[in-house]
């Protein structure tokens, strides 16, 4: 009888504010781990959730939205993001397909790709979009860097 090898790791879930990071973490963990709201900056601290599969266990770190610090609150939130990146073995980079990929996304992409860990891009919120629009966004996301995988969600 062969023994299955369990793979595990810490994964940062990163992206701009309100791209659906917390909703995605809740879905991957199979329950409510993170607060979900339409209001930006709902997640202010790193929230940990565990996603289990047959041969893996991932500790997902739902992070505050990645943004340029403009006040003490966003400065604190950005320090939380930076500190979380020190301990990760992978990044789930969440993009919203409802908005064009812009300078903020490219800034985050540079930051996560320079970590030197595998990066998976999740194109979120595809459920109500036309396939042609999703394809355009997938093409734009594919040019952000050397990612491990790209998935519409």
Description:
The chain has one domain (7-152): 3-Layer(aba) Sandwich (Rossmann fold), CATH 3.40.50.300. Helix 3 links the parallel strand 4 (90-96) and strand 5 (119-124). The protein has helices at residues 21-29, 72-85, 103-113, 131-142, and strands at 7-14, 47-52, 56-62, 90-96, 119-124, 149-152. The chain has four helices and six strands. The protein has a six-stranded mixed sheet with strand order 2-3-1-4-5-6, with helices on both faces.
Short structural description:
The protein is an alpha/beta fold and 153 residues long.
Return the CATH architecture: 3-Layer(aba) Sandwich
Decide which structural class fits the backbone.
Answer: alpha/beta
Largest sheet: 6 strands, mixed
- CA-based gyration radius: 15 Å
Kindly give the count of domains.
Answer: 1
Helix content: 25-40%
Strand order of the largest sheet: 2-3-1-4-5-6
| Element-level helix/strand string | EHEEHEHEHE
Distance between the termini: 37 Å
At the fourth CATH level, what is the homologous superfamily?
Answer: P-loop containing nucleotide triphosphate hydrolases
Q: Which parts are unreliable, with pLDDT below 50 for 5 consecutive residues or more?
A: none
Which shape, going by the Cα principal axes?
globular
Overall mean pLDDT? 85
How much of the residues is beta strand, in percent? Answer: 15-25%
CATH topology description: Rossmann fold
Could you name the CATH class? Alpha Beta
Number of strands: 6
**What is the count of DSSP helices, taking H or I runs of 4+ residues?**
4
């Amino acid at each position: 009888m062969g023994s299955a090898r369990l793979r595990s790791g810490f994964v940062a879930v990163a992206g701009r504010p309100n791209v659906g990071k917390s909703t995605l973490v809740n879905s991957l963990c199979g329950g409510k781990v993170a607060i979900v709201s339409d209001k930006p900056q709902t997640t202010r601290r790193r929230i940990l959730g565990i996603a289990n599969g047959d041969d893996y266990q991932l500790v997902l770190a739902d992070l505050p939205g990645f943004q340029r610090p403009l006040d003490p609150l966003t400065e604190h939130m950005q320090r939380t993001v930076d500190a979380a990146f020190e301990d990760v073995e992978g990044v789930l980079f969440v993009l919203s397909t409802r908005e064009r990929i812009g300078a903020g996304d490219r800034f985050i992409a540079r930051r996560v790709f320079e970590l030197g860990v595998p990066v998976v891009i999740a194109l979120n919120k595809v459920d109500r979009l036309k396939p042609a629009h999703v394809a355009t966004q997938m093409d734009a996301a594919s040019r952000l860097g050397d990612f491990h995988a790209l998935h519409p969600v």
